[in-house]
Specification:
By secondary structure, the protein is an alpha/beta fold. It is built from ten helices and 14 strands. Helix 1 (14-26) packs across helix 9 (232-246) and helix 3 (93-109) runs parallel beside helix 4 (123-134). The longest helix is centred in the C-terminal third of the chain and has 21 residues, at 291-311.
């Protein structure tokens, strides 16, 4: 019999239910279990998603409980408070760290031996918390990090240069939040550096690129002001990560992972490009950042460290 791939999703709010829809739509697993403290919401989503199955790939979907994590390949956590208008992601830390302590201990009690994928904010700190609370090796605990910010950057650059976003290679690294930074020194269209276009005066000016970055950094605020929450972008980003993991892709994606000396940083989860496969994080792809970028990354790490001191 073919091996069953099983995802347990914890938190079926805006982000979780959008992710579940992406999983069903893309046929990413054989089994999808939904858990939420609001059991009725998880049940309703399971019913609704099951009604989509005649139009997609075969899958078993149900509202379950923590015992379902025992043989799960992936536990995805999108549970917890989201940003209210005017709130930063870091403002959520106290509420969500408490929620994570109980969720992660329930998952581990089941005998879970798979991988964690975390999206709840502040995602870098909660990924670190998941690693600490679970006792799992760090390569098996992955945060969504700056994968969405990177997607936002690639989208806006694709519009500015009129190039398919899939051919825009540019990363946002650092905290998934206000202290993140763009790595302009390694941004390319195809394999051609953006700096070459700047020198030739083609495409956006440096000021326009700076404005693009500001729009990326502040995108969540702009969306939350308009519709209260952001979820489709992160849901697709999490689905992309799920595919990279379950298909053992060895794909380079910007995720939150534990640094162990890379970029001169240690004992911190932060968004950086890394190779993702079936065992989780295979390795961090360390970029040769310029001095200013390295300084900004260290500043971002410091912002996270100061908040972490309050939690751990
Ligand atoms: P939401 O309020 O719609 O959903 C949260 C869900 O978590 C609710 O259904 C709630 O019942 C559930 N929940 C709360 N405590 C729980 C517990 N102890 N056990 C199980 N379920 C519990 O919020 P949302 O808009 O879906 O956002 C979820 C999280 O995702 C937020 O922290 C938000 O900031 C984050 N987010 C992250 C990114 C990213 O790029 N990483 C992007 C968007 C949102």
């Amino acid at each position: 019999m073919e091996k069953v791939t099983k995802i347990v999703l914890i938190g079926t709010g805006f982000v979780g239910s959008s992710y579940a829809f992406a999983v069903v739509n893309q046929g990413l697993a054989n089994e999808l279990v939904l858990i939420d403290i609001n059991k009725k919401k998880a049940e309703g989503d399971a019913m609704d998603l099951n009604h989509a199955l005649p139009f997609g790939s075969p899958m078993r979907i149900w509202a379950g409980d923590y015992s379902d994590c025992k043989d799960a390949d992936l536990v995805v956590i999108t549970a917890g408070a989201n940003q209210q208008p005017g709130e930063t992601r870091l403002d959520l830390v106290d509420k969500n760290a408490k929620i994570f302590k109980s969720i992660v201990s329930e998952v581990m009690k089941s005998g879970f031996v798979g991988l964690f994928l975390v999206a709840t904010n502040p995602v870098d700190i909660l990924s670190y918390a998941t690693w600490k609370y679970s006792g799992l090796p760090a390569h098996r605990v992955i945060g969504s990090g700056t994968i969405l910010d990177t997607a936002r950057l690639r989208y806006l650059l694709s519009k500015a240069y009129k190039v398919n976003p899939q051919n825009v290679h540019a990363y946002i690294i650092g905290e998934h939040g206000d202290s993140e930074l763009p790595v302009w020194s390694h941004a390319t269209l195809g394999v051609r550096p953006i700096s070459d276009y700047l020198k030739e005066g083609k495409g956006p000016t440096q000021d326009e690129l700076d404005q693009i970055f500001i729009n990326v950094r502040d995108a969540a605020y702009h969306i939350i002001d308009r519709k209260g929450a952001t979820y489709y972008g992160i849901a697709m980003a999490m689905a992309r990560l799920t595919r990279a993991i379950l298909n053992d892709e060895n794909s380079v994606l910007t995720v939150s992972t534990l640094l162990n000396g890379e970029y001169g940083l240690k004992d911190i989860y932060i968004g950086v490009p890394a190779i993702v496969n079936r065992s989780g994080i295979r390795e961090v792809v360390e970029l040769n950042l310029n001095e200013q970028e390295l300084e900004k990354l260290h500043h971002s790490a410091e912002v996270l460290t100061q908040i972490m001191k309050k939690v751990f």
